[in-house]
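Fold it.
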Amino acid sequence: MKLTKVNTHDQLDNTLLVCVDVSKNKLNVFCPGKTMDLEDEIGNRTNVICKKLKEYEVFAKEQGFQGLSILVEPTNTYHQKILRIAHQMNHHTGIVNTESVSKMKVVESNDSGKTDIKDPRIIALLGKMKKVLKHRILDQEYQSLRELNQIYDDETKAMIITKNHVSNMLSKLFCDYPMGKDFIYSKSGKALIRLYHANPFRIARSGHKRFSKRMRQAVPRIRTSTIEKLWDAANQSAYHQTGQELQGIQEDQLDRLMARINEQEVTRSMIEEKVVELYRRLRLKDPSIPKAESGVITEFWMGSLLGEIGPINDFSSFKKLLRYVGLNLRERQSGTYRGTTRISKKGRVLARLILSRIIFPLIKKENLFGKYYHGKKDNGMPGKKAMVAVERKFLKMFYGWYKSGKSFDKHRVFTCTSQYYKVA
């Protein structure tokens, strides 16, 4: 037998639920009262929302409620407006899970159809059942970090696309290009673009002696083997004669693509500096925030992770943090049936992406999680699943690191509490 204490007092019990289905230009509202219900459709504009919330306050008093609780289903960024206004007017705010709304429709009316009039009633039903997520009001530093994380991720994706175009254009212009995919972005590769536009016909016409001399002047430490490899490949590619006009078009496009990558690199560097600055400001406010540790996590990735998680004190347990990020396990079991256990992936996508980037260098055999990761792989666990296990382990380590308020101790990572203190 299991007995669970029930909390009979809740802020939602004493307030009028203002349940809102949000779209770009309008808000559909449903307020379940004690003697009568209120339904409304209003414009999604600041002045209209402020006026209507004051009217709902009057309705709440008439119905015997103490204040308002604004509940919304998140829709991109359109729901943020009413939540900000409600917060400034000192009303309670909450969010209902979109998946909960979708599935509750079938429970409520045995109909999975969607209408703007019906959805607020479903939100109200979830509100009465207390199936409401906390609407977190983050400090300015955390909000700024989240915005920078999104911009950084967008720039990273754009850079990947641009690099794909560079590889494609390089294969057209220099068909026997002999170097690896990252060479073109090194000092030697940039010199090849600047001096010869990576055009093998220009290289072949310049002659071996002049080509070698110019490349060494541009990059004094370039290897002789690299020069010879480029020279031989250029002469082979020069057999594939193409018109000068076509070569000019390809050179111009390659130059534009490389300039775009340089701009993206500068943008990412500026973002990294800003993230580090915000992380240091947060540490001044909250000294419990871990200090970046060499070989574990840099200041940039520490700031990025904090931006996605928010204040760690908001989570009373590690399990709640796991659920927030979406790394909690989802089981499928009924009677004798045992399905595959997977992570839920219901939390913040960008937080999981940042975690994967943090732990990637840590799973090398000689690094912090190398033995842990490769041990799981040696026992038959697939690589991706082992990566997720490391992400969960790192997040648990990070949570404990913050809660302890102590400096990093690598011996504590794989030692349980009793063993650790026994040894100490």
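The first strand starts at residue 16 and ends at 22.
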